Amino acid sequence: MVTVSHEAVTQFQALMDQVDEPLKITFQNIHRGYPTETLVRFLKARDGNVSKAHKMLMDCLHWRAQNEIDKILSKPIVPTELYRAVRDSQLIGMSGYSREEHYIFSSILSQHCHLLQSLPVFAVGVGLSTFDKASVHCYVQSHIQINEYRDRVILPSASAKHGRPITTCVKVLDMTGLKLSALSQIKLLTIISTVDDLNYPEKTNTYYIVNVPYIFSACWKVVKPLLQERTRKKIQVLQGSGRDELLKIMDFESLPHFCRREDSGSSRSSENKNCFSLDHPFHQQLYNYIKQQSLISEPIQPVKQGSFHVDLPEPAAEGTEIAKTIESELHKIENRNGLTQSLDDV
Fold first, then answer.
1. What ranges do the domains of the chain cover?
2. Can you name the residues that pair with 236 across neighbouring β-strands?
3. Paired sense of beta strands 169-174 and 120-125, if any
4. DSSP conformation letters of 23-79
5. Where would you tag: which of 95, 158, 174, 341 has the fewest CB atoms within 10 A of its CB?
6. What CDD domains does the entry give (predicted)?
7. Strand ranges, E, within 113-210
């Protein structure tokens, strides 16, 4: 894990003090009152190199300014039917918070023996997301809006409640239903991951991967060596639904629905438990917030239908290599002894 020195933070801050006023305002919209923690995140993403971290942050600020990211939470995806279609095919939601003041001693999670205090728990339905009911721009817009809502509303609220900076989250990735057809999603997933890598670095404390089928296991073996060490250390592949291990860091109420494996196949459980659903309180609060912000920013003009276009980044060399490796591995599996049908049923 990268250790960031006080000297590096001081040098980085001195460089940021020299930026033009409009970009300073954009930086304020990123750090939300915690500039030091934000500088540390970017430094970690560039292995403590001040020059590289400064370039990364400046590129991020320019990207935000050029694409009006500061206004994206006032741009609802309308009509509601289109947004519901996005939610039904891009499965992500917030299920709760990690347990406050809890040390992790599990052997599986032993690499993370620091304090996890009330971090938001985001669930991602990797295997069952189809990304086939809207445009690429809608999915990217939705993803960025969730990022921004997390950073502008969820995390500041948690920080204020607990009296300390809470600037990261936990993600639980559900691989239920992962099939060879995931090949068609690699390009979009690479775009989304690149947006996160370049503009929201080090926002996830730990990734827990659950409900792993054979197809994931095969790809993971070849992808894992390609990941940077700091990324590898954040990823924990748990057995089965991961319920027992996750209950060591969060209460049952915060478990994503697909980890509550008493009722097998619970990825499509009742709507009030399914944090992917538009009817879940998290998504209702998010969508209502965006609608309210749209009325504040443009109180007279009707909200335009269609997506809010954001410049799509070119994947970094590492991301491209990983995507190609996954694609190659999936093709191998597909061609191996004609097992496509049986693997899709895993």
1. 6-67, 77-99+115-260+272-296
2. 208
3. parallel
4. HHHHHHHHHTT-HHHHHHHHHHHTTT-HHHHHHHHHHHHHHHHHTTGGGGGG---SS
5. 341
6. SEC14
7. 115-116, 120-125, 169-174, 204-210
Please state, in angstroms and rounded to a whole number, the distance separating the CA atoms of residues 58 and 66.
Answer: 12
Reference 68, options 309, 313, 314; nearest CA is 309
| Nearest-angstrom CA–CA distance, 178 and 78 | 29
DSSP state of 150: I
Structure tokens at 52: 């590289």
The rounded distance, in Å, linking the Cα atoms of 255 and 185 is 26
Q: Which fold has domain 6-67?
A: Helicase, Ruva Protein; domain 3 (1.10.8)
Which residue in 139, 143, 128 sits closest to 85, CA to CA? Answer: 139
Residues 6+ apart with CB under 8 A from 326: 186, 219, 222, 223
d(CA 26, CA 30) in angstroms, rounded, equals 7
Cα maximum dimension of the chain? 62
pTM of the shown model:
0.87
* Rounded (5°) CA angle 213-215-220: 100
Residue 191 tokens, joined: 């775009």
* Extended strands (E) in the chain: 92-97, 102-103, 115-116, 120-125, 169-174, 204-210, 235-237
Residue pLDDT, tens place only, 290-344: 999 999 877 655 555 555 788 877 776 677 788 788 878 777 877 764 544 444 4
- Topology of the domain covering 77-99+115-260+272-296: Phosphatidylinositol Transfer Protein Sec14p (3.40.525)
